[in-house]
Amino acid sequence: MKASYLNITPLDGVFGAVVRDIELRSLEETEWRAIHAAWIEYGLLIFSDQFLTRHEQDDFAQRFGDLEFTAAPISNLTKDGDVISDANTDVIKSIRGNEGWHHDSTYMPIQARGAVFTAEVVPTKGAATGFADMRAAYESLDQSTRDLLANKRAYHSLYYSQGRAGYLPTKNADGGYDLYGYHQYDTPLRPLVKVHPDTGRPNLNIGRHAHDVVGMDPDASTRLVDEINEQAVSNESRVYYHQWTVGDAIVWDNRRLMHCATPFDITEPRRMWHTRIAGDPASEAALNHTN
After folding, report:
1. Whole-model pTM?
2. What is the 3-state secondary structure (H, E, C) of 58-100?
């Protein structure tokens, strides 16, 4: 099924598209096949005026594969609706940490395939979500840089990324952390360049969680990862910032795109819902977590 079946408008850059005149809660099979084809083609699909319930969001996400986890709030609101604005709370530390560019779950044994993200409450300004195309970023590299990155591997850790940014959560009584992603497995090891399992094209696989490139001095490793990360998101054609409207739904290919949060007035309420689509172990397992 070709993506042209949809009422679809590509974004101005090298990836992403807006899809109109469709209801995600009640897709026909032909519509679903066209959406999946468009997702592979564009990497990022934007749907307005969906107003999905959490159950509907999970049902849509599950069409892409098993779920790593069901709809979870990304929010500075308590269950009672109070705004959390204290910068020292774990909620705000997590929100601020996500302002660094990253792929989801590279710090887990299996990297996520993608995610569905929806907007329930948005602040009056700010809080856009940025997306960056790592396929185009790889293709922009000169041959000497490609040669440099070939066969190089880096560890990925939430302990590293949040610690480096100064946003580690509060320790529990045992000296550890209770939040998702702070696991006790071996730190996942991943290639800096990874072939996409559906397109067969190479993508950078980097982001804020990547560190300690194997065989490199730690300082040289940090410089390399920082330089490649910065270069990857430096071209406007490879980056898109989505300014949210209540009811929006987005699905992205986490194997191809990095993403990041952007700042907003933390005294204003915001509630987003994130459903994470589990990766296929055959292609998304870390090098040191294969069976």
Report:
1. 0.96
2. HHHHHCCCCEEEEEEEEECECCCCCECCCCCCHHHHHHHHCCC
